[in-house]
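The aim of this short unit is practical: by the end, you should be able to scan a pair of folded records and say something sensible about each. We start with the first protein, listed as its amino acid sequence and then its structure tokens.
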Amino acid sequence: MHGLSSHTLPAPHLRVELGGDAWKDVLKGVGGVIVDMSMEAILPELEQNALEGSRGGLGILEGDSGEGYKKAVSDERVHGIKPFIVMPMYENRLVPRTDGENKRQRLEKVKVDYDALVDCGNPINCGLFSDPDIFDYPQLEVNPSKPIKPVSAGDGSQLKFDVIMYDPASGTYKNFRAAIFALSRAGTPVFMVACKDVDDILYTDSEEGRFSQQVLIGKVVPQLLKSLGIKPAILRVNEAHTIIAMAETVNDPYFSDTAYVFTNHTPITAGLQIYYGKGDWFFRMNLPGGLKDIFVDEDNNLNFSRAAMILAHIVNGVSYRHKNTLMNMFPGFKDKIKGVLNGTGEFWKSDMLKEAERPDERLDSEQLMNIHEKDKERFISLVEQKTGIKLDPSKPVVCAIRRIDYYKQQLPMLKPIINALCQDKGVDTIVNIGGSDIRVEGLGIQVVVGGIIVNEHNNDLQSWIAEFIEWMHDPALKGRFVFVSGNDVDLMKAAACGTDAWIEMPRRNSDTGHQEEACGTSGMRAAINGNIPIMSSGMWGDEFVRPYDALTGEGNGFILKEIKPLELYYALSAISNLYYGHKENGAKAWGDFRVKVYEDAKILYIKNMIKRYVLEVFLPAKRAQRAEKAIRNTAGLSNALTEAGFIVKAELTLEDSVPIKNIRAQVWTDINGKGVWHALDMNCKAVKSEQGKTVYGFSLILPLMHAGEFFYKVRFIINDNGKIIYIPEGFGNDVKITVTTPVPGLRVQPGFPRFVPSSARAVIQDALTRAA
């Protein structure tokens, strides 16, 4: 088909075939509790308040992860291996309102009625969660109309923590008190940190307010885990917002067996959490001074993403393409960067579909279609309630309900072709593409766009909303195009179940060529219901979609080879032909297509994503952490001047229990202190073995060709079966050699090479600074 790529997926790595005792054995390798932190998570248990702690994809994914952890980890009931989620509890939520007269979307701050949500009569004792053989918490399920429970301390009072923080309002340091609550997200306990003086609303517009939120949760979480009696084997931070918790625990003996994972969810600058020119804010975090070089870059930016990259044992992107993007953006960290495709919760699957499913039976196309028609009617009814516009259930419906933001491209992709999409099937229509008029056929499609504007003060994006509203009143589009202002859980689920196809069309960065959408999950929610995904290349479809072939009937979706409106038109033309072929002639291809999507999309279930995290991220992080702990001596650096040059000798001692296949070293050299560093790779050999430990070392002569200053630094790289699992800090200080005539001098120069961050984990190029 014109304009569509020829991928042949889903990729085999998405399938995790392990189950039963084999999967339990894998979980044992994690070594203990998994703690997953995020500033946001969607909580369907809160019903109309479910989005109080979510703005978009990260919040949805984190909420879905509660379901995934329950099914992939807790339900296996492996001694000591269980998950917890930690997030803030916000006083207010944003509710979008459409100003029809001015054609704008306003975001109104509405106070969450926690009196109706918090079950003060059924507190949960904090000691309950440390038992390694308790995996279910029915106490959190009591009185589901009030799903949030206070967490009580040993004396029965509510568990609270005091944090001394800088108060931007007064310009002084003051005490802030945070209370702890809990709820069950699909069976996984979620601890909510509440401080009304700080956690006013998710991602407050105030930079200092956002910073205070991040400091608060970073300071509270270590205290919370100690009070709960939880020593995490894995501490995972989602985006760099919560990195302070990692910095607080990295040198705390209580967390000596904790491996750190940093998941980046977006490659765009807005998601990297950099406080530009605010290096002095480091001191407001009250962290050990030795961490300053990790957080503050050479441009005096307080760079949370940089710190997260350095402190984490493993960093991961949320798709394989995103992994490659991160490796290109931050090449110095590439040895620790992985890629794990996002997933989606079965919460978003049609309730009728779940009722019809049987473990050992496959639904046929007729069953799937009958269920879908009912879901479609419900979705159309909900759209009518929200907009007053009733769509035609006999015509195909295509959805693009996502945040309104530049890179998601709803208006630029739809505007040139919207008339052709909505025109009656087969009627000639003129579209203008790049200044040229093109005659195409109408497709007879109904289009639903919805979402929350990313910034209500952005007049350009408000103009998008104004144009969407105008389309609803255009005689050519009236009743065929609908803009639903805002979003909520009910709409999200109804759309995923009731649409016929879903479009995701984010752009690539014009300078780098990187896809600005790291993965995307809205189309996944549609796909698990058998609804057809259409998307830009570079997203989750690159690992899932087998492009539909009209000749063979094979395929499970469409990927736009080029992110252009006409390419989207061609994909939707195929949808239109299949749909009307079924409606008008009873052709089976449409139903068969939907069954393929539905069956293939089971691989996208969130429980499978969690299994991939365990295998591809958590276990490597634990191996790295264990290797790090096993390093007992990195003080073997020695130096000597000879006639031939300067001899560098170094040794590293490891316990024999560490599963190391290869160790090599790098000697970083800089001539005349110009900041131009070169790395020389050295193979290390076992030089001696004693008392269950092996000493590895090397010797190198650096030729000194002339008088001047020479700097060098040493680091070891530990390799496990071809995978680099640990890059410890180069031991010793930067060594400065001053070569004179006739007597050479030597002195130690503190600090790391200037483009290489000081790190408790690695000596690597400061790619974050370069990317910025």
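Turning to the second protein, read its sequence before its tokens, just as you did above.
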Amino acid sequence: MINYNLGKLKKILVILTLVILSSYTHLWNLTGFPLIHIDEGHYLSKAISTLEGKGLQPQNRYYAPYFGQMFLSGIFEIIGYPSVLLNINASESPDTVADLYLVPRLIMGILCVVDTLLILRIAEKRYGQTVGFISAVLFAVMPLSWLPRWILLESIQLPFLLTSILLIVNTDSKRKEKLSIIISGLFMGLAIFTKIPAFTFMPLGGLIIYSNTGRLKYLVLWLIPAILIPALWPIHATVTGNLNEWISGIIYQTHRNPQPFISALYDFFLIDPVLFILGIAGLVFGAIKRDTFLVLLIGPAIVFFYLIGYVNSFHLILLIPSLCIAGGYLLDWIGQILTGKLKVKIGQFVPIAGVALFGLLMTSQLISLDLNSSYYNTISFLLTQLPNKTPSSSLNEEDIRTIDMINSNQNRPSVVSSAGYFWIPELVFNKNFYAHSYYSHNTIKSDRFIIISDEGFLSMLKRKSAQSEVLSTAYNSTHSLARFNLKSLEQIRLDSYPYNSLNLKPLSKIIDIRANY
């Protein structure tokens, strides 16, 4: 095994290399890649609603715990988002819309850089400096690690989960650090309070604490905050009289639109077949060698995702660090074999250098794409079509009366689209409209409506249901106001790697804004 104990300077160079690599892959072209995900709009809407004092359940649905939106709203409060952006540029231009995504995506990117360093320390502590470096490089450069660039609860969850694990592996029989164990339990509780599947890492934490300390009371000290913090979610629902809604939300979240675990695994394979194979092979290798740490790092999560009825590809973001550590463990073993065969130490670098170069090239091709310009243009145009809730003081009385008439319940327009188009007009620019998701089974609330026809909307029209019939009737009564093309897709082949992974989400090559008035 290569000895990295060559002084503080070389340790700093290792860390600096990882920070540069991870910063490039996670902070480059934040507004252009990846494609805007509908759930990003959900979580940003919740965070800004919380920031504005509208409570923890602005959308009246118990689909996820609260810490993610509290974390984002806390950061937004500190940096003055989004008002600081509007003070600089209050226009309704596409650039302003892009900036509204830039800030939260920048936060996700910074968290990814932190994740890289946490993975380094965890694998380094458990398996040595070589495995630590390889694991961190894999997370920094491999295509699979672009998923945490999305503004999702899983992206927020990772650093809290990894910090908890790092604090655990740093405990040993000689240093029974009560405070460290308690803090680890706090971070584990916050990770679960962000999204429930983090609880699958509790067997790993419990085993390490008991193995390292040999004392049951230290395990209890860790479990208390790890359990009590996420318990605040059902407790809050019970206190507010919404326990039945909380139970219904949990059931819906795990059984909606059946999508099995194997389907999400296939998505993972499409995005990054190299890391996927390395990670699974590393897990099998660890199981053969009876490496309990590696098995518990991945095994319980796999069992949990297999048992529930609905698993999306981004739900498995939780597994990316585990796959990187398992892959790093395997690559280190292969490197040692090559070193013995070639009789030169450079053989240790051959496998990781090849994999890292491949990953960096593939990731670079993806993160350089512009997938969101048509979305920003659509939001910008939509802003010009919607009335403000409060008339400007500079308008004359006749204009104010006209706006008041439009804002009345009878004349307020509806916007029929995915929920990803609502939060900026409603919460940032204070526009007055009814938000009607095309997933909604309710009737459109007003006679005047705008339809944003993208790939998601068109796929809804193809379904045979009463809902699709309503949408089809509404669509046929509209005319086109504007169309925006995503020209960047014309230059790539979506059936070739690595671009085939873009097909995981509906790609709207054309977005058509339509209205019936």
